[in-house]
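Most newcomers find our protein records easier to grasp once they have seen one. Each record describes a single protein and holds just a pair of labelled lines. A learned vocabulary of local backbone shapes supplies the integers on the structure line. Nothing more is needed to start thinking about how sequence determines fold. The record below serves as our worked example for the rest of this section.
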Amino acid sequence: MKKDSLGKQNWLLAIAVISLAVTPLIFIKGEYAGSDAQAEGAINELSPGYTPWFNPFFEPPSDEIESLLFSSQAALGTGVIGYVIGLYKGRSEKRKKDDRG
């Protein structure tokens, strides 16, 4: 495959991914809440007297801090997964090189 067509394909894929991420934000109005908040609302609606089994040992002081911690956790997990994939890919290429030479 030519380098130019591969570059066009990459740009088209990037535009498609961005449009898939942005389209719901434009067309779906309302507040976006996480699944935890939705589950809490459903539990309160079904059983108003429900008390949780335990309380969290750490409650972030604001929603922004909670989002920061969540995104940091996601970034760390992504970094670990990327490192492991790169490690195994490097080992695989080294084995192929050793088998040839």
The chain has a mean pLDDT of 88. The two ends are 28 Å apart (CA to CA).
